[in-house]
Amino acid sequence: MKNFDLSSPDFNTIRYEIYKELRAEEPVYWYSNMNSWLITRYDDIMKLLKSDLVTTNHLVNDKLINIQDPDPLIIDITNVLKSWMIYNEAPAHTKFRKFMNHVFVHENIQKVRPLIKDLVRKRMAECDLMNGFDFVNSVANPISAEILRILLGLEEIELDKFFAWSDSIATFMQDFVVSPTPNIQIAQGAANSLLEMKLAFLEAIERRKLSPKLDLLSGLVEGLNNPTSGITEDEVVYQLIHLIFGGHKVPQYLLGNSLHCILTNPDAYNLLINNKEEYIPLLIEEVMRFEAPIQFITRHAKEDIFIHGKKIKKGDSVYLMLGSANRDETVFKNPEIFNLEKRNRRHISFGGGIHACLAAGLVTEEIKEIFSQFFNGVKEIRPLYDLNNPVWSKNSTFHGIEQQYISIN
């Protein structure tokens, strides 16, 4: 087994090679760098996702326990994280998920479809299509944030603020998950962003109380008035913070990764360019399998678990390597080949069980709408970056292209 470091930028060049070795040789692997087990096979991961054997709510508390005299900044941030739906089990998780369903109903994406088309047209009009532009930073990044602002009715918040907030939380989460002791400077930036976000959202909630609008935030405020919801304003704010963090970065990286996949696979490129409406949905599904923005999720064992002769002790940290499961050769035919034809099984990049991504449908529809407009009238896309050596994110929490120069004919 080759030496590897999940948190190193160099891991991007060997990621799928390491996954393949682990699936074949040690599908349950003790990764001492993070004192965690890596689970790499599809069926093993699905079993754990749908079981009561693992939990999500130990990560934050366990991290604090392992830090001697944690800085007050870290405690403040983790108090927010502990309120996120993802780090809770029933009954708190059930309460949060039921309440936040307001945001992710199918009707909401229908409301913003025309606005998405306008956003894409506007962004592309500002790009030098013939001579080249950075797709990620000119289109994918800002549009993902703008759609969130529109959905939530937070247009008064500057777009640059969205970027800064999202980036600082992503940087902190990367450091918090992989580092034995979180970096105080990074924590300071995240704490400042969390405070700014909380104040901005509380102010917006107060405005909606006085003057409701036809937006999702008004719907959430209305839900707060329901005495059976059992949810507080602070808890709503913390779910919104999580939504800004994940709801911006995942679509951004999914857009960039999708474009990279078709540019590096001529057959897929030709299929898509010649039949966009049919292949855009298949493109999204295959990219989520082949080059997903989320490569792993974390859990902790609620009891001793035995898999393939290995004992995962109660309380042990477990990494479910979704990116590996999506290339499991016992599940997918020719998994290392990017193929826009329908697969026999579906990717698991949105997780599974009670913690399956609540925003999966919304994200998928959002990307379909963006690409439908982006590819409209496009005859040729020329890469102006090194396809064999793209600029990948240095953040192992998210896997995606950071810079992507192209030209369009």
UniProtKB/TrEMBL annotation:
Tell me, what's a Pfam family for it?
p450
| Family label | Belongs to the cytochrome P450 family.
Q: Name one GO molecular function term.
A: heme binding
Keyword Protein transport in annotation: no
Q: Which Gene3D superfamilies match?
A: Cytochrome P450 (1.10.630.10)
Q: Which UniProt keywords apply?
A: Heme, Iron, Metal-binding, Monooxygenase, Oxidoreductase
Matching entries from SUPFAM superfamilies are given as:
Cytochrome P450 (SSF48264)
- Sorted alphabetically, which InterPro entries does this protein's record hold? Cyt_P450, Cyt_P450_B, Cyt_P450_CS, Cyt_P450_sf
Please identify the protein, giving its name as recorded. Cytochrome P450
